[in-house]
C-alpha cells in the first residue's frame, strides 16, 4: 500500500523572497496612498469643501509614508529578500511623500 504512506518531505509553496521590513513598508505605503486618493476623491465630490476630517486623514497618510520610508530603508540591512521589492517599497514611500508635498503646494 504505497499510496497510503505519507511523504516525509515537506513542501513549501513560497520561499522567503520578501523581507519582513519590506512587507511593513509596502503595507504602510499602500495605506497612505489609499488615504490620499480617498481625500482627493472627497475633495472632488464636495467641490473643495472638505470636512475637517480630511486634514486628519492627510496627517495620518503622512505618518504612514514616513513609517514606510523608515522600514524601507531598514529593510536593506536584512539578508533575506529581493532587492526589487525593497526598491519598490522605497519608491512607494517617496512617491507618497512627493504627492503630499505637491498637494501642500497647491
Short summary:
The protein has 106 residues and is mainly α.
List keywords for this structure.
mainly alpha, 106 residues
Walkthrough of the structure:
There is one protein chain. This protein has helices at 20-45, 53-74, 83-105. It is elongated, with a radius of gyration of 20 Å. It contains 3 helices and no strands. It is mainly α and 106 residues long. The relative contact order is 0.20. 67% of the residues lie in helices and 0% in strands.
Report the β-strand fraction as a percent range: under 5%
Helix and strand content put the structural class at mainly alpha
Radius of gyration: 20 Å
Largest sheet: none
**Mean pLDDT across all amino acids:** 85
Give the low-pLDDT segments.
Answer: none
Question: What overall form do the CA principal axes indicate?
Answer: elongated
Note the run of SSEs as H and E: HHH
Quaternary state of this entry equals: single chain
Helical content band: 55-70%
Termini distance?
Answer: 74 Å
SS element count, helices = 3
Number of strands: 0
What topology does this entry show?
Blueprint: H1 20-45, H2 53-74, H3 83-105
Helix pairs in contact: 1-2, 1-3, 2-3
Amino acid at each position: 500500500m504505497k499510496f497510503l504512506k505519507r511523504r516525509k518531505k515537506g513542501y513549501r509553496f513560497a520561499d522567503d523572497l520578501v523581507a519582513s521590513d519590506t512587507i511593513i513598508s509596502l503595507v504602510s505605503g499602500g495605506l497612505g496612498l489609499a488615504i490620499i486618493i480617498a481625500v482627493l476623491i472627497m475633495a472632488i465630490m464636495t467641490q473643495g469643501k472638505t470636512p475637517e476630517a480630511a486634514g486628519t486623514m492627510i496627517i495620518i497618510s503622512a505618518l504612514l509614508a514616513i513609517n514606510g520610508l523608515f522600514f524601507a530603508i531598514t529593510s536593506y540591512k536584512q539578508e533575506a529578500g529581493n532587492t526589487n521589492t525593497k526598491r519598490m517599497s522605497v519608491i512607494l514611500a517617496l512617491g507618497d511623500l512627493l504627492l503630499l508635498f505637491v498637494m501642500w503646494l497647491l
